[in-house]
Fold this protein.
Amino acid sequence: MITIAERKSRFGAITIQQGNSGGSVVYSQAGFFQSEADGNGVSTVSYIHAIYALLDQAGCQKILMIGCGGGTLATMLCTQGRDTTVVDADPQAFLLARKYFGLPDSILCRVADGCEYLLSDSSVYGAIVLDAFVGDQIPGHLQSSAFFQLASKRLDPKGCILANVHVRDDRDNTPDRIAIRMASVWPNVRILDTPGTTNRNAIVMAGAVSHLSAPALLVSPQTSADKIGAELGAMSFRTPFPSPP
């Protein structure tokens, strides 16, 4: 990999790298992977394709994303004509996503904390996607019951909220803890997960999600399509543990 950009940030130094053959572009912050895309801005990461497919099934047209990174999900949604707003507390994210990941100028980008934005915003969304990390953890206030209560006020009654959660291994109960907090606000909560694998991503979702089926690859990147398809095929829905171990 060739480093093509480095930026200082209060959330940790950002590094943008590109494959030696000019292939995918990778966004890392404070040493943690954040995003990867092909030359068209299409993600090469399976959890992004999982969220994309779930939003497609749900028929969501107006979407709020909290957390940017390389902005690959927003780029893919914009290509399909979805009305997408992206919020991130780090202004560097938007600059780098536009320059190196092809984030379209038409996507509305707002520099703000996710909670603060929801407090100031009066819009109603068909979906809210939470994909905000400091290191490999979602900031505490963005995974609290109070945050989900706030999010519900900006969500259409037929809408859904989806949170990307990093899971170290099967002993890591983070998805279940977040799901239980979501359940204090919404009656329907599900987890899309791949038990048995380490350092994986699970999608915790609530709202109008009971009809959603396991996601399939809808937009093939220039590389890694077979790998992504296999990883999506290994994901399955489960209910949260009533009392996380």
